[in-house]
Amino acid sequence: MKIYAEITGWGKCLPPAIMTNDDLATFLDTSDEWIRTRTGIEERRVSHVGTSHLATVAARNALAAADLDPNELDLIIVGTCTADEIIPNVASAVQRDIGAKYAAAFDLNAACSSFLYGMHYATQAIRTGVHKKVLIIGAERLTRILDWTQRESAVLFGDGAGAMVLEATTEEVGLLASHVTCDADARDVLALEFGMSFDRFGFDGIMPFNFVGQEIFKRAVKGMSLAVEKVFAETGLTTADIDSLIPHQANKRLIDFLAKMCHVPEEKTVINIQKYGNTSSATLPIAFCEAVEQGIVKPGDTIVSAVFGGGLTCGAGIIRWGQRVTPKRDNTMQLPSNGQSALDLILPLHLQTKAAWEKRGE
């Protein structure tokens, strides 16, 4: 008897503070038109709490949608590249805060590809019988690591979290096929020079963020195209079998390219980059949540997803949704505001980095 991994719960967490393009233009040499025409982004969220807190709210919402007791979970995977600490991991904080006493917990960092990577390995773990109920989370607080003096990268990213519960089933649903890979020859075109090799004693307040946009776009197109072709070949499905496209939300032009390649019309392509920017590992689960909420995903639908991220990691998957598209319990828990606006949270970071660059003489 073949085992599959059904998506039984879904939830998200979006910080209340909204940073618009016009807000960015108050301290960066940019404009709403410049950002929208190049990226499709109109606004993004800025979190006043850490990644583990965002992840926990998303997790609670996903568990509510599945009506699952946290103690039934046997594995928690958190995809993130913005962990609160190097040690311990974010997943252990989530395990503690939701009360999942019996779950193994670890973080996975494939940058923006992390959630699909997590889904890929969680599905395999369920199919082999090693695990039965798995919580996967994509959570990021990217606004804390950006150089807010650099227009090209600062305008692209936002904070947020999304989560799914996967449960073992004999129904042919969930992630039917997936392919993940890495184009490591280009790992330096998207990189943040901060880690164990970082000289913390010589730190002058600047965290250089390498972002070579054109090279990233070119390699992302190639990598995602090949990954999509592989999952179609593995399943024997064609673009005619696809009901919707839910891709990584990095750039509107890239999403449009994927939709054209998969022959998915605009009304069946999930695009929310205009509201949240690129939330890295959180983009995919947030987009899935909204697609279900808006009725884009219907019972039994077949969905194609594709992702890419720093590394350069890449992947694609074909997902068949189950018969339930409504949460069993309310899954709309939100993060309360602390009274600060997005500008209140970001302007100090901008000023600190600007002063650091000036001190360096650059």
TrEMBL record:
Cell compartment(s), UniProt: Cytoplasm
One BP annotation, GO: fatty acid biosynthetic process
Transcription as UniProt keyword: no
Residue intervals passing through the bilayer: none
Listed EC numbers: 2.3.1.180
Chain spans, region ACP-binding: 249-253
Reaction catalysed by this enzyme: malonyl-[ACP] + acetyl-CoA + H(+) = 3-oxobutanoyl-[ACP] + CO2 + CoA
Source species, domain of life: Bacteria
EC class (word): transferase
Pathway(s) the chain acts in: Lipid metabolism; fatty acid biosynthesis
Molecular function per GO: 3-oxoacyl-[acyl-carrier-protein] synthase activity; beta-ketoacyl-acyl-carrier-protein synthase III activity
Entry keyword set: Acyltransferase, Cytoplasm, Fatty acid biosynthesis, Fatty acid metabolism, Lipid biosynthesis, Lipid metabolism, Multifunctional enzyme, Transferase
Domain Beta-ketoacyl-[acyl-carrier-protein] synthase III N-terminal, first and last residues per copy: 106-183
Subunit and partners: Homodimer.
The record's note on its domains: The last Arg residue of the ACP-binding site is essential for the weak association between ACP/AcpP and FabH.
UniProt name for this protein: Beta-ketoacyl-[acyl-carrier-protein] synthase III
Species per Swiss-Prot/TrEMBL record: Pseudidiomarina aestuarii
